[in-house]
Design goal:
This protein is an alpha+beta fold and 824 residues long. The protein is built from 25 helices and 24 strands. The strands form four sheets. Strands 1, 3, 5, 6, 7, 8, 9, 10, 12 and 13 form a ten-stranded mixed β-sheet that branches. Strands 16, 17, 18, 19, 20, 21 and 22 form a seven-stranded mixed β-sheet that branches.
Length: 824
C-alpha cells in the first residue's frame, strides 16, 4: 500500500512539474535563509554566513536533484527526455527519417496484411454465442460415398440428416445447411445471389437473433411445407432492399416463386462458411418447390448437406464421436439406397460418423489458401528482415559519425546503459510512426489481396476488422524491428573506449577494417535474402507462364458458355430435348457463330462424373473409373480438339440406337494397351438403378484437360447427350466476333421462341483466368516483394559505399593534392 502511495505521489509530481519546481525552490530558499540567520547569530559576517550555509547544504542543484529523485519517477523523466532528444535528432535528418519510415511501413504493413488474412481465415472464431461448443458431424472417410456431390463440403444426404437429428444424444441442438445460388430475375439474364438451405432451428441453435422480423423455427421446416418465407442478410437488405424496415412481409421472386421476407439477420453474421457470405436463407423443406425437377429430400445418393451441432454441457468432441460411432451402423442400414448393388452397399454400410470442432467455421478458402498465405507471410518476413538490416546499416553509419560525441559523454561519466537508452529513443520514434503507417497500409493491402482472391463467379468475403491477434502480431513485429535495427547499432556505438574513439577521429580510417565488418555482413545478408526472394519470384512467374502456355487439348479463347433455364416454359422432359436441339440449331445459324455444341461438363470447370467400366473380354472385377462427359455433335470442332480416328457423334446417335462412345488417347493407352480403340466395346457397371450398358467406341480424340488445368491428361469417355444425359446442358459457342456483340446476337436468338427463358453467360478464357487466381497472386506479390528487396539491398549497399567514401574524404583530398586524377 505504501509503494502504491509513493507511486501515485511520484506520478502527481511528474504531472505537476512546474508547480513542484516552484515549491522546491521556495522550500530550499527558506531553509538556506534560516541557516544564514543562524550563522549570523553565531557571530559570522554575512559573506561567511552565506558560504557556510552553502557548504552545509552541499550545493543547491545537487540538493534539488536528490529531492527530484525522491519525489518523481526519475527513469520516466529520463525516458521522456530521451524521447524529446530522439525527435530532435530525426528532425535534423528528414531524408533518413523518410527512408526509415517507408521501409518500416512496407515491411511491417505487408506482414500485418498477410497475418490479417490468416487470422480471418484460420484463427478467428465465429461471431456467435459460444462458438467453441460447435461441432460438425461428418464422415470419417469420404471414399465410400457414391452418387452426386453438390459442393466442396457436401457431407451428408437428407436421409442421413433426418436420422442424425432424430437419434443423436450429444448435442443440445443440431442443424443442417447447404450453400446454393438463387435467381432473383423472373426472366431474361440471370440475377444470381448466394444463399443457404437451412433447417428450421438453424438460427436458434447458433444463437443468432434477428435484427428485424423473425428467424425460422422448427415449425417452418416440415416435410411438404409451402415456401414458408426467406430470411435475408443485413448486407442484402442494405444493397438490394434499400435498408427499409417495411421490407418485412414484402415478397421476392426467388427461382420464379414469390417468397415472403420474414426476417433480417444482424450485420455481424455472415454464415458458417468463412470466406463466403450469404444473401438469402430458405428452409430445407422448400427445396422440392424451388428446385423444380431436382428433389434432394427423397433421394439417398444426393450428398448436399452439412450438419453442425452444439455440444451439451460436459460433452466433449471425443464423447460425441464415440456416441455417433455407436449409432452409425443403424443409421447407414436405415438409409441404404435400395438400388445400390452389393459392392456399393458394402462400401456404404462401412461408413462411419464422427464429430469435429468447427468453432472457427467451415471454409473451402482455408483449405485452398492457407499454404499460400503462410508462404506469403514467410516472404514478407524476409522483406522485413532486409528492411531492418538496411536500417541497422544506416543507424550504424549515424552512430559512427557520433563517435566523438559518445566518447565525450562516456568520459564525462555517462553510463553505457543510459547512452543505449538515449540512442534507442530515436529508433523508438521510427518504429512507432512506422507501425502506425503500417496499420493503415495493412488494411488497404489486405482488402487488395481479398479482391485479388475473389473472382466473378466466386467472390471471397472476409471480416478484416483488426482484433487483438492482429494488434499483438503488429506489436511483436515492431518490437522485433526495434531490437534488430536499433539495439545493435546502439551496443556497437557505446562499446568503443573514449580514448580510442578520440584518437580514431584524428586519423584516417582506411585501415580500420574491423569497423566495417558488421556493416558488410548486414549488406551480405540483404543481398542474399533479396536474391532468394528474386529467384522465388522468377520461379512463381515461370510456373504461372507454364500454366498459361500449357497444352489443354482445346482452345482457350473465343468460346462462350451459355447456361439456359427453361423452368418457366413448363416443358415435359421429352419436349425439352427437342426444344434444346432446335435452339442449338438456331444458335448455329446465328451470324458470327462458327460452331456450337452441348456439354454436360464444361472442361476445367471443376465439375466431374465417373463410371466403372471395363473392355470387352476383360475381367469385370478389374473395372476402372475413367471420367465421363455427355456432349453433342460438333463439340470437338467447337472446342478445337482434333478427331484422330473414327467419327464424331451425329443425329443418328439417339436413345433408341446402340450405345456409342468416343475416347481420348489416355483411355486408349490405359484400357486398350495403346491399340486403336475404334470398333472395340466397353461395358459400364450398373449403378443407381441403371442396367449394365454396352458402348461401341466410334472415335478417338486428342487428350484434353478435364477438371483442372494442372492435372495430367486423364482417361476420358465421351457419350452422346441423347443417350443418357439430362436435358438442358450448357451450350458452348465458338466465334471470332467481339464478346458484347456475340452475346447480344445470342440473346436475340434464344429469346425469339420465348422471352421466359433465363440465360447466363461466361467464357472459357475467364474461367481459366479465375482458376489461376492463386498462381497469379503469388507471382505478382512475390515479384513486387522481390523487386522491393533488391531496391532495399541496393540502398543498403549504396549506404555502405557512401559512408566509406565520406570517411575517406581527407585521404582523397590529400591524394588529389599530390596529383591524383579524379579517374584514378
Amino acid at each position: 500500500m505504501v509503494r502504491v502511495k509513493e507511486l501515485l505521489r511520484s506520478l502527481r509530481s511528474l504531472l505537476r512539474q512546474p508547480q513542484e519546481e516552484q515549491q522546491l525552490r521556495e522550500e530550499l530558499q527558506f531553509h538556506l535563509e534560516r541557516q544564514i540567520e543562524q550563522n549570523l547569530a553565531a557571530g559570522m559576517s554575512p559573506e561567511q554566513a552565506r558560504l557556510a550555509a552553502l557548504r552545509l547544504f552541499g550545493g543547491l542543484e545537487q540538493v534539488k536533484e536528490e529531492c527530484r529523485d525522491v519525489r518523481r519517477l526519475s527513469f520516466l523523466e529520463n525516458f521522456l527526455r530521451d524521447l524529446r532528444y530522439g525527435l530532435r535528432q530525426l528532425r535534423r535528418s528528414p531524408g533518413f527519417a523518410a527512408v526509415a519510415l517507408l521501409s518500416l511501413a512496407l515491411g511491417i504493413g505487408a506482414n500485418t496484411a498477410i497475418f490479417q488474412l490468416l487470422d480471418a481465415v484460420r484463427l478467428r472464431m465465429l461471431p456467435i454465442n459460444n462458438p467453441q461448443a460447435l461441432a460438425e458431424v461428418r464422415l470419417t472417410n469420404r471414399r465410400g460415398r457414391m452418387g452426386s456431390f453438390f459442393n466442396w463440403h457436401s457431407e451428408l444426404t437428407n436421409a442421413l440428416w433426418e436420422q442424425i437429428r432424430d437419434h443423436q444424444q450429444a448435442f443440445s441442438g443440431v442443424v443442417a445447411l447447404a450453400p446454393d445460388n438463387f435467381n432473383l430475375a423472373p426472366r431474361g439474364e440471370v440475377h444470381s445471389v448466394p444463399g443457404l438451405w437451412v433447417s428450421g432451428d438453424f438460427f436458434n441453435v447458433l444463437g443468432v437473433r434477428p435484427l428485424l422480423g423473425r428467424v425460422f423455427t422448427a415449425a417452418d421446416d416440415v416435410r411438404g411445407c409451402p415456401t414458408s418465407g426467406v430470411v435475408v442478410s443485413y448486407a442484402f437488405w442494405q444493397r438490394e432492399l434499400g435498408g427499409e424496415a417495411s421490407v418485412i412481409g414484402r415478397k421476392l421472386t426467388i427461382d420464379y416463386h414469390p417468397v415472403e421476407v420474414v426476417g433480417i439477420t444482424p450485420a455481424n453474421f455472415y454464415g458458417l462458411d468463412v470466406g463466403h457470405s450469404f444473401d438469402l436463407a430458405l428452409p430445407i423443406c422448400s427445396q422440392p418447390i424451388l428446385g423444380g425437377e431436382d428433389n434432394y429430400l427423397d433421394t439417398r445418393y444426393d450428398w448436399w448437406l452439412t450438419v453442425v451441432g452444439r455440444l451439451k454441457p460436459n460433452w466433449s468432441i471425443e464423447r460425441a464421436t464415440a456416441q455417433l460411432g455407436s449409432m452409425s451402423p443403424g443409421i447407414f442400414e436405415a438409409t441404404l439406397p435400395p438400388d445400390y448393388d452389393a459392392d456399393y452397399a458394402r462400401k456404404y454400410l462401412a461408413l462411419k460418423l464422427a464429430a469435429y470442432p468447427v468453432g472457427s467455421g467451415i471454409s473451402s478458402l482455408r483449405e485452398s489458401s492457407s499454404d499460400m498465405l503462410g508462404l506469403l507471410l514467410a516472404i514478407t518476413g524476409l522483406v522485413l528482415l532486409i528492411a531492418c538490416a538496411n536500417l541497422a546499416n544506416l543507424m550504424l553509419a549515424r552512430s559512427t559519425t557520433r563517435e566523438r560525441e559518445i566518447a565525450v559523454r562516456l568520459a564525462l561519466g555517462a553510463s553505457r546503459r543510459g547512452l543505449i537508452r538515449h540512442l534507442l529513443a530515436e529508433s523508438l520514434w521510427l518504429v512507432v510512426a512506422g507501425t502506425g503507417a503500417a496499420l493503415l497500409l495493412a488494411r488497404m493491402l489486405a482488402h487488395c489481396l481479398l479482391a485479388f482472391l475473389s473472382t466473378q463467379g466466386n467472390p471471397v468475403f472476409l471480416n478484416l476488422d483488426a482484433d487483438w491477434r492482429v494488434f499483438a502480431f503488429t506489436a511483436g513485429m515492431a518490437a522485433l524491428a526495434t531490437v534488430m535495427f536499433g539495439l545493435l547499432p546502439a551496443l556497437r556505438a557505446t562499446r568503443t573506449a573514449p580514448a580510442e574513439a578520440m584518437k580514431a577521429r584524428s586519423r584516417a580510417l582506411t585501415a580500420d577494417r574491423h569497423r566495417f565488418g558488421l556493416r558488410r555482413l548486414l549488406v551480405v545478408v540483404q543481398v542474399a535474402f533479396s536474391l532468394v526472394l528474386l529467384v522465388g519470384a522468377v520461379l512463381f512467374t515461370r510456373s504461372l507462364r507454364n500454366l498459361l502456355r500449357a497444352d489443354l487439348g482445346f482452345e482457350r479463347t473465343g468460346i462462350l458458355i451459355t447456361n439456359l433455364d427453361l423452368t418457366q416454359l413448363n416443358l415435359p422432359p421429352e419436349r425439352q430435348f427437342l426444344f434444346e436441339h432446335d435452339l442449338l440449331e438456331r444458335i448455329r445459324a446465328t451470324p458470327g457463330v462458327e460452331s456450337a455444341a452441348e456439354a454436360a461438363i464444361v472442361p476445367t470447370s471443376g465439375s466431374s462424373m465417373n463410371r466403372s467400366v471395363w473392355m470387352d473380354g476383360s475381367d469385370p472385377s478389374q473395372a476402372k473409373s475413367p471420367w465421363f462427359n455427355y456432349v453433342s455433335s460438333g463439340f470437338f470442332q467447337t472446342m478445337g480438339t482434333p478427331l484422330l480416328a473414327g467419327r464424331d457423334f451425329n443425329d443418328r446417335d439417339t436413345a433408341a440406337s446402340p450405345g456409342v462412345a468416343i475416347v481420348n488417347e489416355a483411355f486408349a493407352r490405359q484400357f486398350a494397351n495403346g491399340r486403336d480403340p475404334v470398333g472395340l466395346t466397353i461395358w459400364q457397371k450398373a449403378e443407381l438403378g441403371k442396367p449394365q450398358i454396352q458402348y461401341e467406341i466410334v472415335g478417338l480424340v486428342r487428350n484434353t484437360k478435364y477438371q483442372d488445368i494442372r492435372e495430367t491428361f486423364p482417361p476420358l469417355v465421351y457419350l452422346p447427350v441423347a443417350q443418357g444425359s439430362d436435358p438442358i446442358q450448357p451450350i458452348l459457342i465458338r466465334s471470332r466476333i467481339p464478346l458484347a456483340s456475340l452475346t447480344s446476337r445470342v440473346k436475340q436468338t434464344i429469346f425469339a421462341p420465348s422471352p421466359d427463358i433465363s440465360i447466363e453467360f461466361s467464357t472459357i478464357e475467364n474461367m481459366i483466368h479465375d482458376e489461376l487466381q492463386a498462381e497469379r497472386l503469388m507471382a505478382t506479390l512475390s515479384g513486387c516483394f522481390g523487386v522491393l528487396a533488391v531496391l532495399l539491398a541496393t540502398l543498403g549497399l549504396y549506404g555502405v559505399m557512401s559512408y566509406a567514401v565520406i570517411r575517406r574524404t581527407n585521404e582523397i583530398g590529400i591524394r588529389m593534392t599530390l596529383g591524383a586524377g579524379r579517374g584514378e
